[in-house]
Amino acid sequence: MLTDRQEKLLNILIDRYIKTAEPVSSKSLVNSRFFNLSSATLRNEMNDLESRGYLTQLHTSGGRIPTDRAYRFYVDNLISSEDLDIYPNCQKRIDATLSGVGDDPREINKIMAQLLSDLSDNVVIAGIAEEEDFYKTGLAGLFELPEFREISKVFRLTSFFDEFDRVFDQIEKEFFGATQSADDSEDMNIFIGHENHHPAIKDETVMTARYNLPNRLIGSLTIIGPTRMDYRKNIGLVKYTTGRINKLIKGI
What we know:
The chain has helices spanning 4-20, 26-32, 39-51, 68-80, 88-98, 105-120, 139-142, 151-176, 231-250; strands at residues 55-57, 64-66, 123-128, 133-137, 188-192, 204-213, 217-226. By secondary structure, it is an alpha+beta fold.
């Protein structure tokens, strides 16, 4: 069990690392004025969080970065909170874009995938699960992030991207659950780092959701990004966008 101070420290550290992609030191936290504590006290708290598996250190003289366990703690708290409103600028763009969609399921998937990829800077794959027909976009933008400077990571993710259609049968139950009913279309699943069993994306985060499409089809949405992705923003994007599509489909 973490103390209130440790929870606050962990949340602030994760927010900072998501924003900067730089390891966070106790000195930088003191300078940020989030805490009225000494650098030594913060360092002790960070040492304790590291011993519990929430933080890790890339270099002995550097700051800390969150582990998969820390991100899981962070995401679970986000989902259970009521502070997940979509950013106003994103909401306006989604509303404007989706207001003109027709009743072609594939066109809806294409528009949604391009929209979410632009807003999240992550890979987005939108498809019709029953037909294994997918629209994929966003790979080039992902490779501009610091996490993907290693050629081996680029190769792994590119291979998974290219083979997604072929391996979907294998990963569908893991990522989306066993059911494909419209009743489950608004459920969201988030798999962080080692929680993914597919070796090609073992260092990434995968978000999945289902949504309704015309002709009683069920859409499947997959977002793939670094474990450092902006969870607050992306969860809001997925929930709002799939919710809007579900409402639009009811009116068709």
